[in-house]
Design a protein that fits this description.
By secondary structure, the protein is an alpha/beta fold. Helix content is about 30%, strand content about 20%. The chain has helices at about 55-70, 75-90, 100-125, 145-155, 165-175, 210-220, 235-250, 265-270, 270-275, 355-365; strands at about 1-5, 20, 35, 135-140, 160-165, 185, 195-200, 225-235, 255, 280-285, 305-310, 320-325, 330, 335-340, 345-350, 375, 385.
Length: about 400
């Protein structure tokens, strides 16, 4: 069987020429009857992760200014720490919008993590596709972290619509977004059926019932001209809800990420074999210093676990396998499990001596990243597995 791989020296360098190397069947038994095709595309296609993500300094300064004006600011930080602990315990349905105290405590607790999650997911679009939006709708905006991430990702944005049913949150975002022109704050979706280049919803659907979530996703799909982005916590309940929304949109939308296919999720189909509760990514972020002191921060792990989906109005090629388990690093070889375009999870082994460049590339790949080859089932060729050039 002919296996062609086009790869780069690392995740962040330009693609190098394909080198002919040979590999024994014992090293890649799980690739039998599959052909890896040369994509002839750059590494930026799959290197979509970011280093540790920081909140923009201007936003942190406004956050501190507001905190310093409040009576008993340390009480807000203490409440924020309690909220962080509730998220660690997977308590996602608690309400943080009942009072202004709750809403701002939530902002302190979650704005850095939510911003990092949105920034990472939006980078899936900006790093790959030539897309320059001018209008964004952030549904269930809360503290406005997704809208802020969109503005940082695409400076071309001139209109930011932040929609949240809580007047406490809209009061907070009105103050924190005072330095951003074209930011509009709403408590409900406009009745005029206006559309936007991209619609984002982060950490919103996991607090809804299934029926309400299905109704809401239909509304949001009708509001976007290009992309619909959903981000939820990377826990099993939120992931199952995303799969229900995936099924709802499958017949009328094009799935961009993270799935390389629109078939049944293999993690659900073979859940007993894989023993994994959700398809997720992990994002590193930095908690900002509060009250102008490096020693005062909201306590957190600085790692956010998310599940997400990106949908488009137009066809997209997204057939690169995506890591659904951390890469297993062994002595002079690596083993990775990836969700593939045929709807299955493939196991691939690469050794340092026999295919050094692809080994170096995959070794540094992170959970949730794409890996630089595509897969095509080839039932006609039962010969020895080898890697080679194809022009």
């Amino acid at each position: 069987m002919l296996i062609v791989i086009s790869f780069g020296r690392s995740l962040h360098n330009c693609m190098l020429r394909t080198l002919p190397v040979f590999v024994k069947r014992s090293l890649c038994t799980s690739i039998s009857k599959k052909t890896l095709l040369d994509l002839s595309r750059g590494d930026h296609i799959y290197a979509t992760s970011l280093p540790k993500i920081h909140l923009p300094l201007a936003f942190v300064n406004l956050l501190n200014e507001k905190l310093c004006k409040l009576n008993g600011p340390l009480q807000y930080i203490k409440a924020a720490n309690n909220i962080v602990n509730s998220f660690k315990n997977n308590d996602l349905k608690a309400s943080y919008s009942a009072t202004s105290f709750d809403s701002f405590s939530y902002t302190l607790a979650r704005v850095a993590a939510n911003y990092a999650a949105a920034r990472r997911v939006l980078n899936e679009i900006s790093a790959v596709y030539n897309f320059t939006p001018t209008s964004v709708l952030d549904f269930g905006s809360g503290s406005g972290s997704a809208a802020l991430a969109a503005k940082e990702t695409w400076p071309s944005i001139s209109e930011l619509y932040l929609c949240d049913t809580s007047t406490h949150f809209t009061d907070i975002t009105s103050e924190l977004f005072s330095h951003i022109k074209g930011a509009y704050h709403r408590n409900n979706l406009p009745k005029n059926q206006s559309t936007h280049d991209i619609v984002i919803s982060t950490y919103t659907f996991s607090s809804m019932t299934l029926n309400r979530a299905l109704q809401t996703i239909d509304q949001l799909w009708g509001r976007t001209r290009n992309y619909l982005v959903l981000v939820e916590p990377g826990y099993s309940d939120a992931f199952k809800l995303l799969l229900s929304l995936r099924e709802r949109l499958a017949s009328k939308a094009f799935l961009v990420a993270p799935c390389p296919h629109t078939l049944e999720c293999p993690l659900i189909k073979f859940k007993d074999a894989f023993r994994i509760k959700s398809c997720h990514s992990k994002i590193s972020y930095v908690q900002p210093s509060l009250l102008n002191s490096n020693n005062i921060k909201v306590i957190g792990s600085d790692i956010e676990k998310i599940s997400y989906m990106i949908w488009s109005k137009y066809p997209h090629e997204s057939t690169l396998p995506r890591l659904v388990f951390p890469v297993m690093k062994r002595n002079r070889h690596v083993i990775c499990k990836a969700c593939c375009a045929d709807g299955d999870i493939g196991t691939f082994t690469f050794s340092k001596s026999k295919h050094h460049h692809i080994y170096s590339c995959v070794r540094h790949a992170k959970l949730g990243e794409r890996i630089p080859f595509s897969i095509e089932v080839d039932k006609s060729d039962e010969g020895n597995i080898h890697l080679g050039n194809e022009q």
